[in-house]
Amino acid sequence: LKEENASLRSKINKLQIFSETQADKMRKLERKLEENKIKEEKEAQDLEAMVQHVEQNLQLMTKRAVKAENNATKLKQENALLQVQLKNYQTENEALRSGQSASLAVVKQNADLALQNLLTVITNSRASIKQLVSGAESLQLVADLLKSIDRISELSEDGQ
Fold first, then answer.
1. pTM over cut 0.70
2. What does the record list as coiled-coil region(s) (predicted)?
């Protein structure tokens, strides 16, 4: 009975050691499982953040593309308008070249009129300049007169 008891105790000890070993392994596996869960959650969050960033960049690129398309359309319309204006100017230029001799007479008449106006202005300005010179001479005479009065008054004060 003692031998059997000792044998059972030995088996119990071995089973306890085996059980503790298994418990340690289980705790290590649970920790590893928890670490893997945390790691997976972090990777999932990082992946989600990257997806959001890509979506934002895609939205920005879409906005830029729409803006570029609008600008292209606007520039095409502006180009068409400028082409029409160019044709109009070319037509007008040709018309002016054909009517150049007629307009030359008008230009000469306008030049003559401008010359007459210029001569009138010159005549009027000469009269104004003469008046200014006359006025300046009068002012100079008054200034000289005032200087002489100052000298006379200084001499009379000295002579008292």
1. no
2. 19-92
